[in-house]
């Protein structure tokens, strides 16, 4: 006969506890979990125990496939963490050789679609057990349906995110034709035409990596205008074409095809228009997990977790299993499906960590290679809304919100910070990326009283940008020029090769720090020869003049972190005054490279000595 729990459960510390008291992080032995689950004395323990029994064979098989079976992994305990949702991990010990532990994260959840029609049982903190069961392989229909839902919610609830209804088309655009009539994909010179279009953000990759060399050049543009054979189109482009058609959008912008790549004048002119191209798009699709343009958006889902003390990782497929109620749960209903639908899968953690935390791009180079690239930085910030195709799940990022396919990002606090930057003592690079990326920038731009903070927001963004990879060193300013165009405002003054007049003198206080430095956690790419020949110069007082190499990065962290250290902001000397400035541009892009520049400033002079020695940095502190 089953028993009924009375009072709170002291095993899971979830059942019978108010939500405010469930901020727990603790281990439960298998014996204690089984005892609490017997007879459904605790329905939460019962669900967790049944999920472990259901999924343990899947983990065992993964261990065998990875070669870990020889280390004799043994399941010792279940670790439960409960914050915005319940996270369960299996703690294994490797008994052969040096004893090590492996934590295998699991998602245990009630499917959000099922509970619409079936009452939720009295499990502990049920709202934190609700998620969405995802197909193990993504397909265009599923992606388009979810995208429509997010677009509709964004249109209805986010006044800042509504894309222009009939914007000017970019200079050139891909015309995807009319389904069922003429589906030839061809390049189109837009002239003065208007219409909705999707923009693609992706990582080009190299031929050696499997990438395609499909480009528009001065010799191929005539053929592109006639039509592009489907078999010549790389897989990433094919997938976004299918998605665009599914969403009913006829036009698509892809940089490698819509910019004449060997025409320097056209390249510089179009690079300066990125704020318009991405800012006017109906939607930007980001091939976030694709290493090159031949990788599909619609692939098997996968996650990854590390083996402690080893460089090896385990990379399993993400496939849910329906939870089976173990025989010991009740005496009358052995081995039946949990109702409503309970599921268990490997824990989806990489996408949440990537998008919920700041300053971590290179830590996700495997699952989000696009976001390690400097060009993708402005492609992420400029659009009204972006649909990311991550290795684990799709992620929605707009000016006012961030959501994920499984639904767990939806439960985190959203919205704009009440104040920003220097005026408030709030340093944006210390906040989660969901707060400081799109929303902080747009919040400061929309509110006149916060516009003085734009200078500090700019230095924050530059600090993040300078940690990302560039294939061509001469792209360093052009890859930021769209963002600079978005920031252009009289209160910021003239743009000075990566700085604004309003960022002076603070913008002159950059450092070149080593890779091991406390403020450098991401390795920049090795400088490469310029793709676009021509002058690429900047004044020595600007950060853009510093040649970056493997092991060094330019940082504004000290000037930005002062308020973290002593609660005080840098105080600009009352004696400092910018008298005059001038830049001579090397191209038509006013946010690009210069052939000459000068500053005239007024202030106090002091004696100083040059010290040559090793750079000592502060140790990393937890945030």
Automatic annotation (TrEMBL):
It comes from the Eukaryota. Residues 197-379 form the Heterokaryon incompatibility domain. It holds the Pfam family HET. PANTHER family: DOMAIN PROTEIN, PUTATIVE-RELATED, HETEROKARYON INCOMPATIBILITY DOMAIN-CONTAINING PROTEIN. This is Heterokaryon incompatibility protein-domain-containing protein. It comes from Echria macrotheca.
């Amino acid at each position: 006969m089953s028993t009924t729990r009375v009072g709170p459960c002291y095993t899971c510390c979830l059942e019978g506890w108010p939500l405010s008291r469930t901020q727990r992080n603790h281990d439960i032995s298998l014996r204690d979990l089984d005892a609490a689950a017997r007879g459904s004395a605790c329905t939460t323990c019962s669900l967790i125990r049944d999920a472990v029994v259901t999924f343990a064979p899947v983990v065992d098989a993964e261990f065998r496939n990875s070669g870990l079976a020889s280390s004799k992994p043994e399941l010792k305990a279940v670790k439960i963490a409960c914050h915005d949702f319940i996270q369960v991990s299996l703690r294994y010990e490797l008994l052969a050789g040096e004893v090590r532990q492996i934590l295998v994260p699991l998602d245990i959840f009630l499917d959000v679609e099922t509970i619409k029609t079936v009452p939720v049982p009295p499990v502990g903190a049920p709202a934190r057990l609700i998620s969405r069961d995802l197909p193990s392989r993504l397909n265009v229909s599923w992606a388009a349906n979810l995208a429509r839902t997010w677009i509709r919610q964004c249109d209805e609830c986010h006044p800042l995110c509504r894309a222009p209804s009939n914007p000017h088309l970019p200079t050139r655009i891909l015309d995807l034709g009319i389904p069922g009539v003429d589906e030839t994909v061809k390049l189109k010179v837009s002239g003065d035409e208007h219409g909705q279009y999707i923009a693609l953000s992706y990582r080009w990759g190299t031929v050696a990596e499997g990438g395609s060399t499909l480009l528009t050049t001065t010799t191929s543009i005539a053929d592109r205008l006639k039509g592009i054979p489907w078999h010549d189109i790389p897989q990433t482009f094919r997938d976004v074409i299918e998605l665009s058609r599914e969403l009913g959008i006829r036009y698509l912008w892809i940089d490698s095809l819509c910019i004449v790549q060997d025409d320097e004048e056209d390249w510089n002119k179009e690079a300066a228009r990125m704020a318009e191209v991405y800012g006017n798009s109906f939607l930007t699709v980001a091939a976030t997990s694709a290493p090159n343009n031949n990788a599909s958006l619609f692939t098997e889902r996968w996650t990854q977790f590390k083996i402690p003390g080893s460089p090896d990782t385990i990379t399993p497929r993400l496939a849910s299993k329906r939870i089976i109620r173990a025989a010991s749960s009740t005496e009358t209903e052995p081995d039946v499906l949990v109702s409503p639908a309970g599921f268990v899968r490997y824990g989806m953690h990489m996408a949440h960590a990537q998008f919920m935390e700041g300053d971590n791009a290179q830590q996700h180079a495997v699952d989000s290679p696009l976001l390690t690239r400097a060009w993708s930085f402005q492609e992420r910030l400029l659009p009204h809304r972006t649909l990311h195709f991550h290795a684990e799940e799709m992620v929605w990022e707009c000016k006012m919100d961030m959501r994920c396919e499984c639904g767990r990002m939806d439960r985190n606090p959203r919205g704009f910070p009440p104040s920003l930057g220097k005026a408030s003592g709030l340093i944006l690079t210390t906040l989660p990326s969901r707060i400081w990326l799109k929303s902080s920038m747009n919040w400061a731009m929309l509110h006149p009283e916060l516009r003085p903070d734009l200078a500090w927001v700019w230095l924050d963004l530059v600090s993040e940008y300078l940690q990302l990879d560039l294939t061509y060193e001469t792209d360093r300013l052009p890859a930021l020029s769209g963002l600079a165009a978005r920031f252009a405002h009289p209160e910021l003054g003239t743009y000075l090769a990566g700085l604004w007049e309003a960022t002076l003198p603070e913008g002159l206080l950059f450092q070149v720090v080593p890779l091991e430095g406390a403020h450098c956690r991401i390795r920049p790419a090795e400088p490469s020869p310029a793709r676009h020949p021509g002058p690429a110069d900047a004044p020595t007082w600007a950060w853009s003049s510093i040649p970056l190499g493997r092991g060094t990065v330019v940082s504004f962290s000290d000037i930005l972190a002062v308020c973290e250290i002593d609660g005080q902001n840098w105080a600009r000397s009352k004696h400092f005054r910018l008298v005059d400035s001038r830049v001579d541009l090397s191209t038509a892009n006013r946010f690009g490279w210069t052939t000459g520049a000068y500053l005239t400033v007024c202030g106090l002079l002091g004696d100083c000595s040059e010290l040559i020695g090793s750079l000592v940095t502060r140790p990393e502190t937890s945030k």
